Amino acid sequence: MSAATSERVCLVTGVGPGTGSALVRRFAAGGYRVAMLARSEARLRELERDVQGARAYACDVTDEAALAETLERVRSELGVVNVLIHNAVGGAFGDFLQVDPAHLRRNFEVNVMALMHLARALAPAMIEAGEGAIIATGNTAAYRGKAHFAGFAPTKAAQRILAESLARSLGPRGVHVAYLAIDAVIDLPWTRERFAGKPDDFFAKPSALADVAWSLAHQERSAWAFDVVVRPFGESW
């Protein structure tokens, strides 16, 4: 995608206090108008006041009708979306006997169906323009099913495969699709508390993760990447 960002629009789902907020700040700093989607309107409004060019859109991405209405508002108020980053995530931990099957169903709606609806709504304009980027953030649960990830990993694996299908369909039409897997403990107040005593470089900085997403969204098309796994240099894997 072209590095020129004048009047460009980035849409980020799952805007929370960590990676989501960092993505908003990175793309706004790069000249984008940023549509922020999350269920918490209060948090979005606070970020909207703090980040020039960011706009709050409270929305549950599992509500298909509400999502469609929100995307229409984004198009009307900000313009055509050039970069989509699906960062919203649903998770549940426990083995297959412990996890409520309803949680798996809900996580599938967040991680997979929302990506499908977003791509169907936003990709046609990217195809028409001959450029654009769609990035889904994930983790290594997309590649392996650990015992206590039964309510989570199946949906992330499905998300990655959907993204791969999108990439194969959209790549030849000029739209870059990538899967950004984060194999790390993200640096947040609650993770610092949970992993007290760990050195700073144990934690992945949200701003650094946002830099990787920015790079993916602006790769030269002769060297596009799809599967990208990022981890702190000291992470055991």
Q: Care to describe what's here?
A:
This protein is an alpha/beta fold. The chain has one domain: Rossmann fold, CATH 3.40.50.720. Strands 3-2-1-4-5-6-9 form a seven-stranded parallel sheet, sandwiched between helices. It has a two-stranded parallel sheet with strand order 7-8.
Distance between the termini: 32 Å
Largest sheet: 7 strands, parallel
Number of separate helices: 7
Q: Taking all residues together, what is the mean pLDDT? A: 94
Task: List its traits.
Rossmann fold; 237 residues; 9 strands; alpha/beta; disordered N terminus; seven-stranded parallel β-sheet
Set out the fold topology.
Elements: E1 9-13, H1 19-29, E2 33-38, H2 41-50, E3 54-58, H3 64-77, E4 83-86, H4 101-129, E5 132-138, H5 153-170, E6 175-182, E7 185-186, H6 189-194, E8 203-204, H7 206-217, E9 227-230
Parallel strand pairs: 1-2, 1-4, 2-3, 4-5, 5-6, 6-9, 7-8
Compose a concise summary of this entry.
With 237 residues, the chain is α/β, with parallel strands linked by helices. It has seven helices and nine strands.
